[in-house]
Design brief:
Blueprint (H helix, E strand, L loop, with lengths): L12 E4 L6 H15 L5 E6 L5 H14 L3 E7 L2 H10 L4 E5 L8 E8 L7 H12 L12 E3 L3 H8 L12 E5 L9 H5 L5 E5 L21 H10 L3 E5 L6 E4 L5 E2 L1 H15 L4 E5 L4 H9 L3 E5 L3 H11 L3 E3 L5 E3 L5 E2 L1 H12 L4 H5 L6 E2 L3 E3 L4 H11 L4 E3 L4 E4 L3 E7 L6 E7 L2 H16 L2
Parallel strand pairs: 2-3, 2-4, 3-6, 7-8, 7-9, 12-13, 12-14
Antiparallel strand pairs: 1-5, 4-5, 9-10, 10-11, 14-15, 15-16, 17-22, 18-22, 19-20, 20-21, 21-22
């Protein structure tokens, strides 16, 4: 059987159900994953999000795994961080979660990890699994076993293990889980903190009827922002479709970009861990590097993508990492996404002063956010920009970033969508807007 090659991405497998990805795909991915691991009688964690197609894909995936003789720990409905926790914390040989993250309801896919929740990328296994999924294998002489396991309580307890919450104030928080799987985690967290939580869209519904589960799109935060103002809340929080991204909104309804949260958390973490390395992605504001250096840490700028970041963190023993997109990784959480850990740290800070005041010192520069351009040839566009801006300091670890003393830009091909993404930051708003017009003109002429 030929599987659609376009579903195999840089960090995961993802496509539209049932057109580019279906139950047969899931079965073959399960078989291929066991073959790839090459561990007789491996024990693998299998999980899923709450999309309407996820139960069927989950069943077929399990069938593929056990037909190859591997055992399954079925943790059922789960966020992606909870899935990572289950693999690493209990010492299993790897696992697969059925999810399409923040994509709309018609999408689905698979995220895969080896032992210790080491994520697969296209360079470390996804391309090999693509090849294996198209082959035929002899079924194992004896099928693997399936054991159901609940991990929610252990996961919640783990998040509080090294975070003291006794000095938390009874803050008013609005949490939007977009009818997605993070809705199952919030009640467990609320039992352990004194905060009053107004939980929006907590009911599990894989059609995401209220808004798509992508908190990076501002239109998806309209209801959250209104609720914050109406309830006079201290803070707003939004999760994405599989719960590995977290986004914050202050008491005035202002969205706090992920790099500013990275800067704030870096300062807090380095107080107790001086001299440690902290990673931030190439889209992030210069305030992140400056904050890490001022707090006595070692800043590491790196490429975008959870698989690559985790690999770098393990290699260099980096304590914390943050992405502009709201992914935050912590060494104490097996180098994986730690959104609840981050939430608890932010709540402790918000107990000291209004959150808008706490963030204000980090709003030093003017940042455009990501701007998408549809271009005919992404690489030709990058070459054009490189030839145009030869007097700057280039960095090409992920697309093209060129730095000047008073501004910088990053242009990079998206790994998940057909876009060239542009980010600009400058010391003044006028400079940022000027350079945005200039670069936009160059890219739209392409």
């Amino acid at each position: 059987m030929k599987i659609n090659p376009e579903i195999f991405r840089a960090y995961d497998i993802r496509g539209v159900y049932p057109h580019s990805l279906n139950e047969e795909t899931a079965y073959r991915v399960g078989r291929a994953f066991v073959k790839f691991l090459d561990k007789p009688k491996a024990t693998l964690v299998i999980a899923r999000d709450n999309r309407l197609s996820s139960p069927a894909l989950h069943r077929s995936l399990i069938r593929g795994v056990v037909d190859m003789g591997a055992n399954v720990i079925d943790i059922g409905l789960s966020t992606t961080p909870m899935f990572y926790f289950a693999v690493a914390h209990y010492g299993y040989d790897g696992g697969v979660i059925v999810t399409a993250s923040h994509n709309p309801a018609q999408y689905n896919g698979f995220k895969m990890v080896r032992e210790k929740a080491i994520s697969l990328s296209e360079e470390s296994g996804i391309r090999e699994i693509q090849k294996l999924a198209g082959l035929e294998f002899q079924a194992a002489q004896s099928s693997g076993k399936v054991i159901e396991k609940s991990v929610l309580k252990d996961y919640a307890d783990f998040n509080f293990k090294n975070v003291k919450v006794d000095n938390l104030k009874p803050l008013k928080i609005v949490v939007d889980t977009a009818n997605a799987v993070s809705g199952m985690v919030i009640p467990e967290i609320s039992k352990k903190i004194p905060c009053k939580i107004d939980h929006l869209f907590e009911r599990s519904d894989g059609t995401f009827p209220n808004h798509p589960p992508d908190p990076l799109r501002e239109e998806n935060l309209k209801i959250l922002k209104k609720e914050i103002k109406d309830k006079k809340a201290d803070l707003g929080v939004a999760f994405d479709g599989d719960g590995d991204r977290i986004l914050f909104v202050d008491e005035k309804g202002n969205i706090i970009s992920g790099d500013l949260i990275t800067a704030m958390l870096s300062s807090l973490i380095l107080k107790n861990h001086p001299g440690e390395k902290i990673l931030y992605d190439i889209r992030s504001s210069n305030i992140v590097r400056e904050t890490i250096e001022m707090a006595g840490g070692q800043p590491v700028i790196y490429r975008i993508g959870h698989s690559f970041i985790k690999e770098k963190m393990r290699k260099d023993n980096i304590i914390f990492a943050g992405e502009f997109s709201g992914h935050y990784y912590y060494r104490g959480h097996y180098f994986c996404e730690a959104p609840i850990f981050v939430l608890l740290k932010i709540l402790k800070e918000a107990s000291k002063a209004p959150f808008s005041q706490l963030v204000k010192p980090y709003r030093k520069y003017f940042h455009s956010g990501e701007i998408n351009f549809k271009v005919k040839d992404k690489m030709a566009s990058l070459r054009k920009l490189k030839n145009r801006y030869t007097d700057g300091r280039p960095l090409e670890i992920d697309g093209l970033r060129i730095d000047y003393d008073d501004w910088w830009f990053l242009a990079r091909p998206s790994n998940t969508e057909p876009f060239l993404r542009l980010v600009i930051e400058a010391k003044t708003k006028n400079m940022m807007e000027k350079k945005k017009r200039e670069l936009s003109s160059l890219l739209t002429k392409n």
